């Protein structure tokens, strides 16, 4: 699956629809995304592996005013 397709199918592109996204799919497995929207920045990294996996999400700034909307 192409990186932009994975970003769309998973709904990642809807986290901040205004963000400019740079995404990448790793072979044999893995996904990385960096998004920027003005002074807001987000990044996602996923590495699914047998026996261990890694996933992270980090953001600076929010498109939401209410912290409850973030969770």
From TrEMBL:
Domain of life: Eukaryota
Gene3D superfamilies per record: S-adenosylmethionine decarboxylase
UniProt key word Transferase: no
Keywords on record: Autocatalytic cleavage, Polyamine biosynthesis, Spermidine biosynthesis
InterPro entries associated with the record: AdoMetDC-like, S-AdoMet_deCO2ase_core
The family this protein is said to belong to: Belongs to the eukaryotic AdoMetDC family.
PANTHER family assigned to the protein according to its UniProt record, in alphabetical order: S-ADENOSYLMETHIONINE DECARBOXYLASE, S-ADENOSYLMETHIONINE DECARBOXYLASE PROENZYME
Protein's name in the database: Putative ovule protein
Organism: Solanum chacoense
